[in-house]
């Protein structure tokens, strides 16, 4: 039995969009989003430890995403509104308090004192949430094109946005749990 080219392409795309790596990322991303939406119900220490544990897993699942081409640019849209983002940011900021701000190097710049910028743990978490929640919602649409675009956009945003934010977030949270512990350059 011979398959035509269109059938073969559809089957190949189905293999990709329902692959183990994508389903696992969806699962971890959903856990991250559900916790983030309810974070105000938890104690500060529980919040910090949760993100310290889930962020490396998210990064691992993100790096395993396949690179696929979007098939219909009009399908990809943002679902997390500014109000939702702001609610998450404010609730986390209140919980984390004075330790919310940290210093980091500006991306794609020379490593020097002038490129050190002040950042916020709450902002990093909210930004990652926005990218992952948009991925989850778009992937849940009932078309193959929406699922392909969800994966393509998630991959793009991992490479340009939330992957780097996870790394910065992990370091900032680590320094809250282990304050004053000298790093290798100070030993």
Notable features of this structure?
187 residues, Four Helix Bundle (Hemerythrin (Met), subunit A)
Could you describe the 3D structure shown?
- Strands 1-2 form a two-stranded antiparallel ribbon.
- Mean pLDDT is 86; it is low at 1-9.
- It is mainly alpha-helical.
- The N and C termini lie far apart (68 Å).
- It has one domain: Up-down Bundle (Four Helix Bundle (Hemerythrin (Met), subunit A)), CATH 1.20.120.
- The protein contains six helices and two strands; from the N terminus they run ααααββαα.
- It is elongated and about 50 Å long.
- Helix 2 runs antiparallel to helix 3 (44-63) and helix 2 (20-37) crosses helix 5 (121-139).
- The longest helix is centred in the C-terminal third of the chain and has 34 residues, at 144-177.
- Helices cover 64% and strands 5% of the residues.
Characterize the quaternary organization of these chains: single chain
Mean pLDDT across all amino acids: 86
Largest beta sheet, briefly?
2 strands, antiparallel
Please identify the structural class as seen in this structure. mainly alpha
Total domain units: 1
Q: Helix and strand succession?
A: HHHHEEHH
Looking at this structure, what is the CATH superfamily? Protein of unknown function DUF5063
Unreliable parts:
1-9
CATH topology: Four Helix Bundle (Hemerythrin (Met), subunit A)
- Assign a percent range to the helix content: 55-70%
What CATH architecture do you see?
Up-down Bundle
Strand arrangement in the largest pleated sheet:
1-2
Task: Give the C-level CATH assignment.
Answer: Mainly Alpha
- Estimated radius of gyration: 19 Å
Tally of helical runs: 6
């Amino acid at each position: 039995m011979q398959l035509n080219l269109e059938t073969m392409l559809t089957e190949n795309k189905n293999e990709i969009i329902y692959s183990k790596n994508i389903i696992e990322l969806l699962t971890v991303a959903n856990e991250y989003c559900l916790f983030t939406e309810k974070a105000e119900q938890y104690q500060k220490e529980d919040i910090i430890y949760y993100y310290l544990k889930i962020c490396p897993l998210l990064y691992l699942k993100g790096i395993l995403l396949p690179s696929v081409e979007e098939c219909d640019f009009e399908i990809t849209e943002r679902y997390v509104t500014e109000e939702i983002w702001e609610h998450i940011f404010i609730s986390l900021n209140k919980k984390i308090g004075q330790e919310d701000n940290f210093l980091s190097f500006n991306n794609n710049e020379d490593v020097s004192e002038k490129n050190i910028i002040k950042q916020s743990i709450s902002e990093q978490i909210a930004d990652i949430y926005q990218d992952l929640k948009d991925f989850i919602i778009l992937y849940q649409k009932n078309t193959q094109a929406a699922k392909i675009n969800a994966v393509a956009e998630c991959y793009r945003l991992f490479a340009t946005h939330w992957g780097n934010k996870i790394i910065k977030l992990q370091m900032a949270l680590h320094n809250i749990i282990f304050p004053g512990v000298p790093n290798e350059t100070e030993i």
